[in-house]
Design goal:
- The chain is an alpha/beta fold.
- It folds into four domains: about 140 residues, Response regulator (Rossmann fold), CATH 3.40.50.2300; about 100 residues, 2-Layer Sandwich (Beta-Lactamase); about 190 residues, Alpha-Beta Plaits (2-Layer Sandwich), CATH 3.30.70.270; about 240 residues, TIM Barrel (Alpha-Beta Barrel), CATH 3.20.20.
- About 45% of the residues lie in helices and about 20% in strands.
- It is built from 26 helices and 26 strands.
- Helix 2 packs parallel to helix 3 and helix 16 crosses helix 17.
- The longest helix is centred in the first third of the chain and has 34 residues.
- The protein binds ligand C2E and calcium ion (2 copies).
- The site of one calcium ion has 4 residues, from loops.
Length: about 725
């Protein structure tokens, strides 16, 4: 005996108790005794013995009563009760079993047999306990694994389900009724029923196991996905089969798989296909088109000046805009698909069937059109199997029209335009990469043609874009290769022809390729962000030169060097810190003027005002460049801490025009009213100069006065003026 089992004997015969104690203790049992029924019940409940030996006749009640009472106590459980019956008293034996006795033994007691019987009963009880616990464990495990199992007995046509079925189907109350096959199939998603019934039929009639995924609808109306496995067990003895199955709730897994798939294939912002899946679709479509010798078109759509919107309205609004654009594109291409020019073909999927497909993330296959967001503000539309180029032109035209209608974003009305490049298959490329590249090239051409238009790809465009590419990569190294330098165009006080400052202008000398003027590379530098590095370098350069000039005592008190500050540079969040770190010696700042265009100032005016004030606090002078080309309004001028405005060259060129003279006059008058100085740039002849002097313009700049000079040339000029 491994365990020290405790046995409670309830008997009023003191001799029997004594003998029992002796006999059983030698076999390692611990013995408890009680002489009355009442005492016995109390001990049984309190001391929790492993087995009960119960006499039929007790002084206060019968053994049957004791048995009944104990079996109704859940705490006593299913512990074995061995009933001691009188000889031939079959009736009481029968009643004892009904009352829950485990076994019986006849008086007088045969001690060796009793000992074996006790041993057997204890072991049986232990096995029963462990079975119960493993069943409970199984049920728990099933619950955790969201697993339900069923057994089907073909003879009895009877389905047995594990308890967990209620949880799976969210059944609140099913009573003790049997959950039969019909109850189950009623809860299977109708579209999946046929497949399931087929599988079960094949299992039962042809012993074909199955493993399928299908949907169910729970009693609470929820849709779940289960992995359903059906199998059979053959009984070798009677050749009968039992059928078993498991259902596992895999809804969460499917959901996360879908999510992963949608992340991988779809753009999370707009829900459109992303670059990867668009390329997959295109590959399939092109292979198909190749077989059918059909033509298709790839439209590369790029939002004009998206950066401007992001800068002025913020990224959240920018994102919102992209979503609204994609909605509009979707609707637009859909109507285009119904277009007569698509040569309707009824075998094709309807647009709504298509959109369902997109939503359900079904396999990416070929369709009449495909829409994707490649990233940023770039969208693509693929028109498959079109009759001729005209279709692409019509669709592009319609897209541009639809997108030209203003968008309302958080109470802002925003006008946007797009440039579209079109590449045709197979003429402009017979593979995805080539088509994408050439559509992109055509799109750039559309931008160069003034934006808000579409262009078909032409071979000559590629040369241009190759040039652009080489320029872009050369520019990246221009600074480190010392290819950038500054020239200085003098500024004169018109009243007395005094040299009063200069404008620093950027030049790029490319080895073996010659000099490049800023108009050829500044826009590129802005697009690629290079301007930030260049701009910083510029600040440092200016600061160095000023230091030199000051220490050489070349500068008058009111001398100013003007620096052009690009939009991107000014809109940097940390521009003030950048300025501070470049112009370390603050006493130099009074000699510096930042030239900012009106457009730059007016974007996000409130935020700019803070920046402008901070710059002005640093004693940096501010000037509005290209004045008259942007908002053309002086009314806002008083808000900004500006020292001067620079009338754009386009006004000066036409100085003989009466209207323009009046405008220039008005600008000068108003600026002077606000104590702001007026600079005229682009003075090319005596007449213009005279006019401006007459009108009271303060400062002049232009080829007629001086072309931009090299550093040494300008220094010589400074020296001459200093000595005079
Ligand atoms: P901007 O700020 O309007 O600069 C004046 C431009 O007019 C300069 O051209 C100058 O050489 C030119 N100019 C001056 N006088 C005359 C004239 O009498 N007739 C004509 N036809 N032109 C005259 P540039 O140097 O080619 O610069 C062009 C533009 O490039 C500048 O226009 C400015 O917007 C930009 N830029 C130049 N340097 C920088 C720079 O360092 N940083 C930034 N961000 N932009 C720069
Ligand atoms: Ca300028
Ligand atoms: Ca200008």
């Amino acid at each position: 005996m491994k365990k020290n089992y405790r046995i409670l004997i309830i008997d009023d015969d003191p001799t029997l108790l004594l003998i029992a104690q002796k006999k059983l203790q030698t076999h390692g049992y611990q013995l408890l005794t009680a002489a009355t029924g009442e005492q016995g019940i109390a001990d049984a409940l309190e001391k929790s013995p492993d087995l009960l030996l119960l006499d039929y006749e007790l002084p206060d009640m019968t053994g049957l009563d004791v048995c009944n009472i104990l079996r109704n106590q859940p705490s006593y459980g299913a512990k074995p009760i061995l009933f001691i019956a009188g000889k031939n008293d079959y009736e009481s034996i029968d009643r004892a079993f009904q009352a829950g006795a485990t076994d019986f033994i006849i008086k007088p007691l045969n001690w060796p047999i009793l000992q074996y019987r006790i041993q057997y009963m204890l072991r049986a009880h232990e096995i029963q306990l462990s079975l119960l616990s493993s069943e409970a464990r199984l049920a728990k495990a099933q619950r955790l694994a969201k697993l339900v199992n069923w057994e089907y007995n073909h003879q009895e046509k009877n389905f047995q389900w594990s308890e967990t079925f209620k949880e799976l189907f969210e059944i609140n109350d099913y009573g003790s009724q049997n959950f039969n096959l019909a109850d189950f199939t009623k809860r299977v998603f109708p579209d999946d029923l046929y497949q399931l019934e087929n599988s079960i039929q094949n299992l039962i009639q042809r012993q074909l196991p199955f493993e399928i995924e299908h949907r169910i609808i729970t009693d609470q109306g929820l849709e779940k996905v289960v992995l359903h496995v059906g199998h059979f067990i053959k009984n070798e003895l009677n050749n009968h089969c039992d059928y078993i199955g498991t259902l596992q709730d895999i809804t969460e897994r499917i959901q996360s798989e879908n999510k992963i798939r949608s992340l991988a294939y779809f753009d999370s912002l707009t829900g459109l296909k992303n670059r990867e899946s668009f390329i997959t679709v295109l590959n399939t479509a092109l292979a198909e088109n190749k077989k059918n010798h059909s033509t298709s078109a790839l439209l590369f759509i790029d939002l004009d000046d998206f950066k401007h919107i992001n800068d002025t309205l913020g990224h959240d609004v920018g994102d919102l805009l992209l979503c609204k654009i994609s909605e509009r594109l979707k609707n637009c291409v859909r109507t285009a698909e119904n277009d007569q020019q698509f040569a309707p073909d009824n075998s094709r999927k309807s647009p709504s069937a298509y959109s369902d497909k997109v939503n359900k993330l079904s396999p990416l296959d070929m369709s009449r059109f495909d829409l994707a967001r490649l990233g940023g503000d770039e969208f693509t539309v693929f028109l498959s199997d079109i009759q001729d180029n005209k279709v692409a032109a019509t669709v592009s035209h319609r897209l541009l029209q639809a997108l030209n209608i203003p968008f309302t974003l958080n109470n802002h009305e925003v006008f946007v335009s797009f440039s579209i490049g079109i590449a045709l298959f197979p003429n402009d490329g017979d593979n995805v990469q080539q088509l994408l590249k050439n559509a992109d090239v055509a799109m750039y051409h559309a931008k160069e043609c003034g934006k808000n238009n579409f262009q078909f790809y032409q071979r000559s465009m590629s040369d241009k874009s190759l040039y652009r590419l080489s320029l872009e990569s050369d520019l990246r190294n221009a600074l480190s290769n010392n290819e950038l330098y500054l020239v200085y165009q003098p500024l004169y006080q018109l009243a007395n022809d005094r040299l009063i400052g200069c404008e620093a202008l950027l030049r790029w000398k490319r080895p073996e390729k010659g000099l490049l003027m800023p108009e050829k590379f500044i826009p590129l530098a802005e697009q690629t962000g290079q301007i930030l590095v260049i701009g910083q370098w510029l600040f440092e350069q200016i600061s160095k030169i000023l230091e030199q000039w000051l220490s050489a005592d070349l500068l008058n008190e009111d001398f100013k060097i003007a620096v052009n500050v690009s939009s991107l540079q000014f809109h940097q969040a940390n521009i003030i810190d950048k300025v501070k770190s470049s112009f370390v010696d603050k006493s130099l700042n009074q000699y510096v003027t930042f030239e900012l265009t009106e457009t730059v100032m007016m974007q996000n005016a409130a935020q700019n005002l803070t920046k402008l004030n901070l710059l002005s606090d640093l004693h940096i002078n501010l000037s509005i460049d290209d004045f008259g080309t942007g908002y053309s309004s002086l009314s806002y001028l008083h808000q900004f801490p500006v020292k001067s405005v620079k009338i754009d060259r386009s006004f000066i060129i036409q100085m003989e025009n009466e209207d323009l003279i009046n405008i220039v006059k008005a600008i000068i008058a108003m600026a002077h009213g606000m104590n702001i100085k007026v600079v005229a740039e682009g003075i090319e002849n005596q007449q213009q100069l005279d006019f401006l002097k007459q009108l009271g313009c303060d400062i002049g700049q232009g080829f007629f006065l001086s072309e931009p000079l090299s550093l040494s040339e300008f220094q010589t000029l400074l020296q001459q003026h200093r000595s005079t």
